[in-house]
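User: Hi! Is it possible to get a structure for several chains at once, not just one? Here's what I have:
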Amino acid sequence: DIQMTQSPSTLSASVGDRVTITCRASQSVSAWLAWYQQKPGKVPKLLIYKASSLESGVPSRFSGSGSGTEFSLTISSLQPDDFATYYCQQYHSFLWTFGQGTKVEI
Amino acid sequence: QVQLVQSGAEVKKPGASVRVSCKTSGYTFGSHGISWVRQAPGQGLEWMGWISAYNGNTNYAQKFQGRLTVTVDTSTRTAYMELRSLRSDDTAIYYCARDSATGGTGVFDPWGQGTLVTVSS
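Assistant: Yes, the chains can be modeled jointly so their relative placement is included. Here is the combined structure:
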């Protein structure tokens, strides 16, 4: 299976900060990578697919980049609603896997 | 709108089986596959398996091979997940999630509300 490793595991930030989360794949997944946001007690929400395509309705302060084995999710100006846990997920091979998550906290 | 509504919480003893349902509405059922993803308490997301609602083809994570069965009933637009030989570390919230209309197969959107399965003697 392709292993997905996110860094950092926890990120402390303030409102207005620019935040970047990194996701590394154990082998190339091309651009077949998605990002999800999950708030405590809530269902995960799709933010980005195909590495950099913003899902409809997701604020433009979220952006994704990368290909192959290195990916990043950037929040250009952190808002109070963005404090959550973020997961990357590869869907290159038909054995899909998630990263372990990055918690963005105050 | 697209909705996935899951069955209620379950409490099972070790060694038992659990079956969770996921009733869908608001889209052409056969056009999108459905995955099952679980989340143990305080832990991350773990993909378990996928089924094509078009032809019933399945794909399972190696970890669950032999213990997991995912099915669909096209007449009721419902997907099912059965996990057998339950252990305490199977205690988790189990989610169904549809293949995304934009991202395609392997991208999960939307998700069901989750079903808590507790395995305890």
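The two ends of chain B are 40 Å apart (CA to CA). The mean pLDDT of chain B is 96.

User: Great, thank you!
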